[in-house]
């Protein structure tokens, strides 16, 4: 297997989960966090001087960077081999350390909240000017939570409770093996979830249909365990929210994403009112496949069954060249990622499904995880993750607290990068079939962000409403899921994915609740940014970089107003973005009907 498809983790911490360097790094971080927590606990109840606050701010930022480094590495080693027991043990240790740091941060936040307003304005403007926005956020948030001692208890219990349930889901997924026959139908082998997922969008409809049945069977077989896990995660959140006096489960994800309910509502209203063209696209695609309606597993299938695979090396050049036309700095980052082997792309057993990019703030490197099989969708995913890596590079010079940007703007950078590559591929396409394939890939993404993600949001919102009254059984979750899918897709599909709630990792991620709407925000916001880039050309790249650098120190409404002069809590921007996102349907229809 080519090393080009395998990432290099040894340049970070040699030895993987057995790395002595990693063990030493984590040990040193534990000493720092433990001593800092003790300092803050010992000072609890007494008024801390501003000099002490300055000292704690510096130490906490160091601890945050070190923990991000440690957590990024453990994410890599657990994802590349879901059966690595040492990696699982490291995960629990890092979560315990994260809990301690959270306790320290809660005590620190309480100190911030105790500073009189007049002194706060003077100190934050003088000693912490670069991180004033995140400190103001922390101060306000502290006034909205339980007393530090109770938040500390909740954080401690979450390690083996809340986060433990999240890890339990990973254990369930890691043990799933899906039987599959080779191309000749003779030899049966067992596929991991990640390998099986790639066959759900295989160009061959027989492969898709066969895997869809096995996929649903596999998740149905784990439905009781995954339902129990999902119920426990939501139950923990709802109980904690109730203790804090919060009555809306969307309150925390909105705060985390630094956006208002008005902005969220304006976005979804525009999506709901503007997706009729996507239903037309799905109908046209069904006709192309010789069907009355697409099945759920047909949506992401390539429209060109004989489409040539794109080798990984060719994909690297395509992406770098597309970035270069907009921003030499983006291209430089992409070349660095390929040359220094930041990317894990091999198709091999034991890998978890999906893809991600993670940053190492101390090493000033990134790592990208995916399974590459040569499809245009894979190329888009790779560009998407490199967009994340570029965002990470832009903020690495800032203080750690100012590097903490939310998921919705993170998805803006990644989706913008994806769009650049898609435009480049479409621009060089010559044949009708090539153009159709690329337009299909673009419209698949529009469907994903405007329909699939909306279905997830509808499901999760209704699930939390129901969960407040008690546990839901697996069949009830499947009913909720199908109802959400039908509302989001209308009558465009002929079959659904009842166990999507079990198969989708995002419902089980404990770091960020409602791991859905930020994707749609990022997609549509980046769609608006692409329009600006087309109007202004390369000159926009500097303004784009400035916008990304500011993502850790502004709300999304402030970002849009300052750098683009638009109001996100009003419908016009979102309506224009949705219209642009679905504009490819006309070209797609014309080519189909030729």
From TrEMBL:
Among the GO biological process terms of this entry, one is: proteolysis
Q: Which domain of life is it from?
A: Bacteria
| One annotated GO molecular function | metal ion binding
| Name of the protein in question | M3 family oligoendopeptidase
Could you tell me which Gene3D superfamilies the record lists for this protein? Answer: Oligoendopeptidase f, C-terminal domain, Oligopeptidase f, N-terminal domain
Upper taxonomic lineage: Bacteria, Bacillati, Bacillota, Bacilli, Bacillales
Instruction: Enumerate the PANTHER family for this protein.
Output: CARBOXYPEPTIDASE 1 (PTHR34217:SF1), METAL-DEPENDENT CARBOXYPEPTIDASE (PTHR34217)
Cofactor requirements of the protein:
Zn(2+)
Which family is it part of? Belongs to the peptidase M3 family.
| Record text on cofactor binding | Binds 1 zinc ion.
Q: Where is the Oligopeptidase F N-terminal domain?
A: 112-176
Q: Does the keyword Protease apply?
A: yes
Q: Which NCBIfam families match?
A: M3_fam_3 (TIGR02290)
Q: Which CDD domains match?
A: M3B_PepF
Q: Which UniProt keywords apply?
A: Hydrolase, Metal-binding, Metalloprotease, Protease, Zinc
**Is Transferase tagged as a keyword?**
no
Domain (Peptidase M3A/M3B catalytic) spans: 202-531
